[in-house]
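Technical annex, item 7. During the second reporting period the consortium partners agreed on a shared format for inverse folding records so that results from different sites could be compared directly. Each record opens with the tokenized structure and is followed by the designed sequence. A conforming record, contributed by the partner at site C, is shown below for reference.
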């Protein structure tokens, strides 16, 4: 088994690291405090090719592999998990879904500007009464001539206010259950489509999350992704891809918390010595570093399996389940090691703690990941 990264993967990681340190870090505290969307940073990430990382060059993407994408996500999220989630939704949900299931028209019209980073995407599956139980879609689309008319409400939509292109999942035939669900591309500004106010969140405050309302919103037939009745399978397959994105974001937070704690332990003195010299702190830091490594390996394994064309459903869910748990644990430990300083904004670990929690909730809660893993185990063991 070869754990070495390719020269290109190392270069991408280095570029992401430098960009995060030089361009993202200086404003991270202010943007979190003021809930300011990182418009300029996202534009720059687009110019670097980071908003269309895995999209082939023929569709104006950077044509990189999933491992390189995961490494970049980790470096960006280590410094700012809000920027991480904006990048993740665009790359591993929206671009991935359109590239895999979009028609030539959809790829030409929507995927290309998304991959160039000129437009931003959002993925609208969740509803007020359909979160984990995603088949329970209440948003309804009815066919009228060459159009479909959408009515309903979506919520918890990342990039909800700032996106230009929305992938919207809606029920199109209630009798058929999950096989009567269809996915559509809806453009910002479409008549009858409005977004709600920005949610006042615990963490990832610099990203925008809001509800979407569709009132007799007309969408052309050619904006159907894959085909009528395939919307649920589209959402599930796309979310498998999204999960290593969030796993990478969680690894990034866990890395950031660990590194902040390590550095602080060499600066802070107590009982006449750097606190690093106290064995309890060394044990904590060793556990934190070990957990980062394990979460990183699980996540890169899922990414490498995708690159190799293998089935990675179980591995992506395991990566998300474990990495999100490690993000929360490491952020908590980092706050504790910082003592009172960990509780104030300046030292950043309090933000990491607030940012970490959502990784156990969105793109499938930890409970949903366990359910998916259990179902895959039955399949694997032919039971
Ligand atoms: N990958 C690919 N396909 C999947 C899948 C997965 N992880 N999970 C389910 N499916 C497919 C099934 O194979 C089945 O397809 P067919 O009809 O072609 O056989 C279909 O989806 C329905 O599956 P199932 O009967 O298992 O549906 P359930 O309602 O029992 O459960 C879960 C589906 C719970 C796994 C699904 O609703 C889910 O993932 N919920 C969480 C949604 C989520 O992540 N929300 C976050 C919002 S985006 S931020």
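Designed sequence (site C submission):
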């Amino acid at each position: 088994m070869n754990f070495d990264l390719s020269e290109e993967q190392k270069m991408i990681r280095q570029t992401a690291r430098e960009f995060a340190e030089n361009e993202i870090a200086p404003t991270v505290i202010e943007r979190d405090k003021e809930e300011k969307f990182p418009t300029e940073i996202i534009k720059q990430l687009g110019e670097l090719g980071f908003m269309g990382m895995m999209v082939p060059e023929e569709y104006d993407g950077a044509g990189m592999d999933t491992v390189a994408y995961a490494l970049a996500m980790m470096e960006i999220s280590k410094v700012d998990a809000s920027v991480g989630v904006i990048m993740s939704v665009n790359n591993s949900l929206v671009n991935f879904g359109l590239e895999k299931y979009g028609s030539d028209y959809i790829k030409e019209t929507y995927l290309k500007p998304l991959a160039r980073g000129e437009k931003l995407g959002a993925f609208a599956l969740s509803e007020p009464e359909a979160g984990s139980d995603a088949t329970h879609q209440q948003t309804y689309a009815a066919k009228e001539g060459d159009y479909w008319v959408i009515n309903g409400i979506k919520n918890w939509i990342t990039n909800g206010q700032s996106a230009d292109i929305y992938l919207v999942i809606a029920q199109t035939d209630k009798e058929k259950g999950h096989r009567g669900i269809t996915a559509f591309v809806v453009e910002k500004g479409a008549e009858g489509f409005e977004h709600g106010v920005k949610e006042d969140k615990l963490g990832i405050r610099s990203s925008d999350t809001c509800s979407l309302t569709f009132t007799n919103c007309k969408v052309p037939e050619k904006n159907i992704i894959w085909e009528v009745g395939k919307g649920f399978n589209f959402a599930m397959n796309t979310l498998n891809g999204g999960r290593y994105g969030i796993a990478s974001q969680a690894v990034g937070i866990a890395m950031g918390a660990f590194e902040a704690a390590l550095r602080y332990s060499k600066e802070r003195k107590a009982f006449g010595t750097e606190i690093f010299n106290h064995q309890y702190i060394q044990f904590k830091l060793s556990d934190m570093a070990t957990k980062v490594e394990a979460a990183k390996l699980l996540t890169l394994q899922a990414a490498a399996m995708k690159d190799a064309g293998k089935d990675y459903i179980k591995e992506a869910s395991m990566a998300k389940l474990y990495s999100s748990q490690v993000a929360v644990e490491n952020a908590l430990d980092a706050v504790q090691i910082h003592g009172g300083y960990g509780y104030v904004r300046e030292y950043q670990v309090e933000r990491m703690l607030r940012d970490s929690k959502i990784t156990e909730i969105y793109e499938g809660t930890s409970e949903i990941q366990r359910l998916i893993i259990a179902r895959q185990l039955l399949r694997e063991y032919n039971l």
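The domain at 7-120 is CATH 1.10.540.10 (Butyryl-Coa Dehydrogenase, subunit A; domain 1). The pocket of coenzyme a persulfide is lined by residues 125-126, 132, 134-135, 178-179, 232-233, 236-237, 239-240, 313, 362-364, 368, 371-372 (CB under 6 Å). All partners now use this format for quarterly exchanges.
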